[in-house]
Amino acid sequence: MAKLRVAVHKFSSCDGCQMQLLNMEQDLLTLAERVEIANFIEASSTVLPGPYDVSFVEGSVSTHEERERIRRIRAESRLLIAIGACATSGGIQALRNWGRHEAFLHAVYATPETIDSLAQSTPFSEHVKVDAELYGCPPDPGQLKRVIADLLAGVPPWVPTEAVCLQCKRDGNVCVLVARGEPCLGPVTRTGCGALCPQQERDCYGCFGPQGGGNTTALGRRFLAPDIGLTPPEIVRRYRFIYNWAPAFREGSKAWENPGPGMGPLPTSGTDNSSPSGRGQGEGA
């Protein structure tokens, strides 16, 4: 059986998503029997030319050179899979998309004229066809292994889209939004992290990006309620973090820049937010 030819490419990023592949450790030895790592500079200086069966791409498109390079990689790859927050939404560097590019350059660099960067940091899907996206900052190793197993089996990669709240329900976590009044993004964030922050009684900050179908405006209204007490500017900042340029969080933040009539807090009457059981609004009896 011919081995699957795999390449891993880095763009503007911190390398954390590639490190998740390397962190598979023992599984990599098993994987080596089925996969040929043809191009993975983080792991080996050996670089074999394409075409590739699968190319994993990390980082965002932030320079003119990267915009051309992703097109070349797409042309020589049968499948293209984006991994991580930068690759799927532009990442934390997409915060510059909300401001003036030239102003940032002059504030940070002594010689801004030498910097060749695009005005916006964008995901690969805005430039080429992407066959699958793996979310997270960084992505979950278990999901990475599941995607690779799907590829080896010849089936389309499957990535969950359900909310972090469902993971909390399965694990029996007390809802930090209801019981502790924490501004948790779990209701609008996709699972994949194992609900790590709520397990530690901390609010989710959306590092796996928006889940499919979450209502970011309604959650913002819940954050206005007295037991949480965020202001509209604080709600904007909640959505403008790691996944700030993802469409759902982008629109969610815009809604709170200039909130209009009807954008008051959701009612919380009849809810005991101090209940140690975590039961109340949104909780089962």
Whole-Å distance between the termini? 54 Å
Write the CATH fold name of the largest domain. Rossmann fold
What count of helical segments does DSSP give? 12
Number of domains: 2
Question: Could you tell me the radius of gyration in angstroms?
Answer: 21 Å
Give a count of the beta strands, DSSP E runs of length 2 or more.
Answer: 5
Form type: globular
Major pleated sheet: 5 strands, parallel
The mean pLDDT is: 89
Instruction: Using the coordinates above, name the CATH class of the largest domain.
Output: Alpha Beta
Name the beta content range.
Answer: 5-15%
CATH superfamily of the largest domain: NADH:ubiquinone oxidoreductase-like, 20kDa subunit
What structural category arises from helix and sheet content? Answer: alpha/beta
Show unreliable segments. 269-285
> What is the N-to-C order of secondary-structure elements (H for helix, E for strand)?
EHHEEHEHHEHHHHHHH
Helix content: 25-40%
- Name of the CATH architecture of the largest domain: 3-Layer(aba) Sandwich
